[in-house]
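ok trying this again, last paste got cut off
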Amino acid sequence: MLALALAACSPGGNGSGPPEQSGPWELQSIDGTAFEATARIEFGADQQISGRAPCNSFSGQLDAAPPGFAMSDMVRSGMHCDEMEAEERFLSALQEMDAMSTRDAELVLSNDAGREMVFRLQDAR
């Protein structure tokens, strides 16, 4: 497995805390632009985060108190596919997020620089 350490960021934004539902949460957009590939994130017991990027699965540890968001000890599998560019865009944006909030069936990860990732609860339509 290819290890990818994500730097912890200071909590920011106006988040309302962790999602009440663990997920899976499917990525809808990054910075207002629709994300055409498939990427998902889930929150598990003991502050665990796992998910699926366009090519690889990943997991890590949630290291921020709500409404903060910081992920550490991230590992991902080392598969290559035609959507590696989308995967890198997703994982890079994920590294920059430092706050989380929920609204309706959406999970929003954001930062003080105005970046935003919007996820939708997979079973919510």
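PB: full thing came through this time. The domain at 2-121 is CATH 2.40.128.270 (Lipocalin).
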